[in-house]
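Posting for a labmate who doesn't have an account.
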Amino acid sequence: MKRIAIALLGVFSFTGFHLQAQNEDDAVRMSQYGIFGTASYVGRAGAIGALGGDFTAASYNPAGLGIYTKSEFLFNSAVTDGYSRSTYQGQSSSDFRVGFSPFPMGFVFNVPARSESSYMHSFQFSFGANTLKSNSNRTDVLGINNQRSMMDVWVDDATINYSNPYTFDLAFATNTMFEDSLGVWSPFQVIEDPNGEILQFKNQKEMGGITEMVFSASTNLNDFIYLGATIGVPFYDYQMYSTYTEEKSTGDFYTYNQNLNTNGVGINLKLGAIVRPLDWLRVGAAFHTPTYYGLSDRYETNLSHRNFYSSSPYSETDYGMTTPYKVLGNLGVILGNQSTPVAGSIGFDYEFSDYSTMHYYMNDSKYKSYINNLMSSDLQGSHTFKLGGTLNIQQFAVRAGYAFATSPYKDEFYNIGGQTTITAGLGYRARFWYIDFAYANTYQSKSEYLYADNSSKYTVNKYTNLFVATLGFRW
């Protein structure tokens, strides 16, 4: 029961009196990325760490920029389709939301050595923006609960706490909860309908994502060692709009809305190296420092019942957070060369990130200690494996890839599975320009809760379809 109570904090924290909307789920959302980038990167499921030659390398292994022998400008167009299917109390519901991103977009400037005898063959510097994640999604949950409603949970809270302007104060103001002459609270379904079942419906819309500005430098040392570094400045945006309704068998119902908007900016450093011991083999490694974010939450709730309406105060909270560090290992195999009619490459990437090291910084020292200890005990290291390849037939390229990331949660109560991604892509190369297309499908299954009670548990399968097109120019 202790573990259940702790885990439910992530669901119920939005409704706490002190408005501690910061929880471990928020931290994971800011730290766990998907397969986003150029179409060439996406088509290979991101397995480019040792192969390089792609602008997205700036956000993963910046040594890959040292592979460039020409300068480049590129821009991108990406459409995401976030689809969710939930199962609650034996009933299934589904919904989707479409998002758009114009990134990556950026420049890579290649500066050749002045002397052919120089050990440093070339130097590159680049800047631009990469999309690291999309939060675009919409989830519907529908079912009949004859055990406990959210109002039952609020009644329990009202017997302990004097006031909560974001939850049961609204219910009291709208006649959704009642207090008798003896000070005993009752939820609205007990009045006039003591034996009725409660129809529950939730619609949650999520928007935003993570876009990282990158400022990178790399070098090619004698076509044997490639080194790179990136200063990353990620911009985080998350918007959540939730509508929750409970309806009695008599037709009486109430609607509770939550609106959360989180914005922030961070900074990090990425270092990478690639070694080319053989013409056909490349081995790479990279290290990402934790990202330090300065963040701001804006939160409000409201409740309507019959002809009554009540809204909470508008709250703003400023705080900081550090994401986990990341360690990457890369392997690349080159097949053929430019003189052969058919060529290609295969890449394998491994990434480790310890989510238990994440940390919040806030003014409330008691809650800060609690949530940081909670993340330390409930989260774990996550392993990501990426495998991708390219087959080049003259000027055309065919790509495919697969990626899998293990869950950062160690507690089985969360029942959150890993992320699985399958990708494919096509490309065309001309002398001074190129165009690429890619598709990626990411799947994850998890359990969530409508409110802080076991009876409100539901399962949701989330699918993200990503369509990417990249146009680049080289000179």
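Reply:
Got it, the structure tokens are right above this. Residues 1-20 have pLDDT under 50 and may be disordered.
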